[in-house]
Each structure stands twice: as C-alpha cells, then as structure tokens.
Design brief:
The termini are far apart. Strand 2, helix 2 and strand 3 form a beta-alpha-beta unit. This protein has 2 domains: 159 residues, Rossmann fold; 198 residues, Dehydroquinate synthase-like, alpha domain (Up-down Bundle). A 6-stranded parallel β-sheet has the order 1-8-5-4-2-3, sandwiched between helices. Strands 6-7 form a two-stranded antiparallel ribbon. By secondary structure, it is an alpha/beta fold. It has 15 helices and 8 strands.
Length: 370
C-alpha cells in the first residue's frame, strides 16, 4: 500500500515578481489567470506570455463547455501551462496540459487516454482546493446536471507555487468558502479507508490550523484573517496532499448535484452537507477513526466530545451562515433526483466513505437538510 505521493515540487515565494523571475515566464508559456490578478501582480512585469482570462469564457466554476471554448481559442504554440487562480482555474489548466482534451465528456468518461504533453505550473490564489498538489480535475458536465472528477497521475503539476500575497485581496466570502472546503478535504481524507499514517499527519495539521484560525476570526473579527492568510494557504496545501492521496467522500459526492444545478460555490455546497454526513456516519459506526477525529476537534474547540458537532456548527456558522437547501431554490422533487444522481455518477467518491451510505441514507441526509 502506498503511504504518500507528493508529485509536484512545492515552492514558496514572497512576491509574484520573484516567482516570475525564477521561473523565467515568457513567450513559451500559456498563462490562465483572472484579469484582476494579472493586472495587479503581473502586468507591470511586461511578460511576453500568452494570457487567457478565464472570465471571458463564463463566470462560476468550470464546465465542459468552458474548457471546449478555451481549447478552441488557443492559437499559439506553448511549452508550459501556468495557472494562477482558484481551484477552477487550476483544474482547467490540468486539462490543457494534456495531449488530447476534446471532446471533454469523452475524456471524463475514459474514452480518451489521459496523457500529459506540457509542463504544468499551478499557483493557487485561494486557500481551499489544494488542487496545486492533486491529480484531479473537477468539471460541471452541463448536459448531465452534475459535476464529475477525472483523476490521473498524468495531471499532477510539475511545480506547485505558493505566493501568500496573492490572497491579500481575497474577499471574505471567498476566503470562507475556500477554507471550509480545505477543512472538509482534511476531515474526509482522514476518514477514508485509503488514509495512511502520513496522510493523516497532513490532514490533522490542516484541521488544527483552520479551526484555530476560525476561533481567532470569531473572537477578533474578519480582519483578523489577514495575518493568517499564509497559514491558511499552507493548510490548504496540506489538506490537498492528504485528500490527493486518500480521497474525498460523501460530503463532496452529495454536494455536486446541488452545486451544478443551483451554482452554489463548491466550498459552500460542501459545508451544507458536512456535519450531516458526519452525524450519519456516527449513527452507523461511532468507533474507529471517527472517534479519534471527534476527540481531536473537541480538544481544539474546548468542548465535551458529545457536543463536538454542535460546537463545530456554531463555529462554522460564524464564518458562513448555514442555510436550508430550499433557500437555494431546490424543490422537494429534487431530493430523489439528487440521490439517484449521486449513486449513478459519484462512485469514485463514495468508495472512500467511512461507512457505506445506501440510497435510503443519502435520501435521508438530503431530506434533513432540505
């Protein structure tokens, strides 16, 4: 059994300028980035890169249509793909570094061989996805009304680059949804049957950093996050290493239909499912790693273990107020539709569950959150 795989070389820089200089960014590079980030941190460097602004191809999280359109518009030859952005930007870049990309649905269905052709450099500008160190790309498949992941070692970056200054202008709501996503990555990976001693080292440390940060923000206000951004960026990468090896599970699986149908941000849709999935795990099996995890979180929150989910929900609600699924426009008829979608499309994730969740249990979770 593999203990741990970390494929990219991980770098950290104080400034974007230092990164651009060391990596010699230039005419042989295809850079995928948000226009705001590029203009603020890179435009003054007068780089000769081929630059693509993601927002020109649509807002929100990446889809198969978006990747098809970007791929069609790439005119110039390039040797490296450089992604500077949130998880969606990084996930798109992983696909553009492949030899064959389209039709994208065929790629995700395993009908096209996943073969890397370009050098890949990933630079996160949020503190949530951990995509810079994983081999997974997640897209919304528009015609299917859900999200789907493609995992292959061919999609590991060659270099993962951490530049804390790129998070300085991150709006609080984006900080909140992305960092909660990282927390859930760490928790789900620790409970996965594929977890190892080493993946849990990264997972538990990520949980500690994030929850301690949330406690400080709750006590001192949202501006207290600013000096903690580097810590949260590192925690996101730690969580990425953990779930990149051990996988995510039911929280992500159940969130995908909601996110794809109602365009709920990824971290927020995960957050909606998070503690309810955990409570249902506990109803089925309360011993083993979940007991260790609950004790660990209870110690951080200074509460009795029996109240761990109640106190965790209170803390997270200070970061993002939790809403009912119906408040996003979800109708009651969608409960069964989403349940069946999860079972049909998310087997990759459900295989990592702490315990098996059958159709009735998945339906129950959606019903309780509705």
């Amino acid at each position: 059994m593999k203990e741990l795989v970390v494929m990219p070389t991980i770098y950290k820089y104080l400034s974007s300028k230092d990164f651009a200089k060391d990596f010699k960014l230039g005419k042989d590079d295809l850079v995928i980035v948000s226009e705001k980030t590029y203009k603020q941190y890179f435009e003054h460097l007068n780089l000769e890169c081929n630059v693509i602004y993601k927002r020109q191809y649509g807002s929100g999280e990446p889809s198969d249509d978006m990747v098809e359109a970007i791929y069609k518009d790439i005119k110039n030859d390039f040797n490296r793909v450089v992604a500077i952005g949130g998880g969606g930007v990084l996930d798109i870049a992983k696909l553009l570094a492949l030899k064959d990309v389209t039709p994208v649905t065929d790629l995700f269905d395993g009908k096209i061989k996943v073969k890397k052709e370009k050098n890949l450099i990933l630079v996160p500008t949020t503190c949530g996805t951990g995509s810079e160190v994983t081999n997974i790309s997640i897209l919304a498949l528009k015609d299917r009304g859900t999200k789907k992941g493609l995992a292959s070692d061919e999609m590991f970056a060659d270099s993962a680059v951490l530049i804390p200054e790129l998070l300085n202008d991150l709006p609080f709501n984006v900080f909140a949804t992305s960092s909660i996503d990282a927390l859930i990555h760490a928790v789900e990976s620790n409970l996965s049957p594929k977890s190892s001693f080493t993946t849990k080292l990264f997972g538990y440390k990520a949980i500690e950093i994030i929850l301690e940060g949330y406690k400080k923000i709750t006590a001192e206000g949202i501006e207290a996050r600013i000096p903690l951004l580097e810590d949260f960026l590192i925690a996101s990468t730690y969580a990425g290493i953990a779930f990149g090896n051990a996988g995510c599970a039911a929280v992500h699986a159940l969130s995908y239909p909601l996110g794809a149908t109602y365009h709920v941000p990824h971290g927020e849709s995960n957050y909606l499912m998070f503690t309810e999935v955990m409570k249902n795990y506990m109803e089925i099996r309360a011993d083993g790693e979940i007991a260790v995890l609950n004790r660990f979180i209870a110690d951080i929150l200074n509460c009795e273990i029996v109240y761990v989910y109640e106190e965790l929900e209170k803390l997270l609600n200070n970061i993002i107020p939790k809403k009912k699924l119906r408040e996003y426009g979800m109708t009651e008829t969608k409960i069964m539709e989403f349940t069946e979608s999860v079972l049909a499309n998310q087997g990759r994730l459900l295989a990592n569950n702490y315990v098996e969740l059958d159709k009735n249990r998945i339906y129950k979770i959606y019903r309780e959150l509705y």
